[in-house]
From TrEMBL:
Biased composition (Acidic residues): 24-33
Sequence segments annotated as region (Disordered): 1-41
InterPro entries, A to Z: FlaC_arc (IPR009205), Flagella_assembly_related (IPR052494)
Protein name as catalogued: Flagellar protein FlaC
Pfam families linked to this entry: FlaC_arch
Compartments in which it is found: Archaeal flagellum
Keyword flag Methyltransferase: no
Amino acid sequence: MALDFLSSLFKKKPKEEAPPQEEPVLEEELEENVENREENEQLTQIMERINEIENDIPRIKISIDTIKKQMQELRDDIDRLDKTIKDVMMLYEVISQEINPFKDQTAQENPLANEINELKKELEDLKLEIAQIKNDIKVLSGYGVDLDSIIYEVLAEV
């Protein structure tokens, strides 16, 4: 019966025939049924996709945790390598300073190195002189000498 109805809908009707009153109602019902079926199919597809995604979430979480763990292990390895490289570089510097055959030549040829050595000597001389002044002040303060007046006189000369 439904097949007859559907076939009658798709048959070309002569223009002379008047359409029955019941057909528009049936057409609307068919359209609603088709729309409802399409909506149900879409909802079913959406629900299936949601279920797939829900099933994938635990696997994705495990993958993320694994990647985080591997990244931390790589960071630790890089830190260890960095420390090892620093240790090797320090060892190289120590050895190259001790064994470098060009050490004396570079110091003589480099004017900045000469100036640095001269400044080091002057600094050592100043340290010795300050140590002597401290000792002299201690000795003078033991004899009851007025240190304030001596300091003011020296500052006034400078």
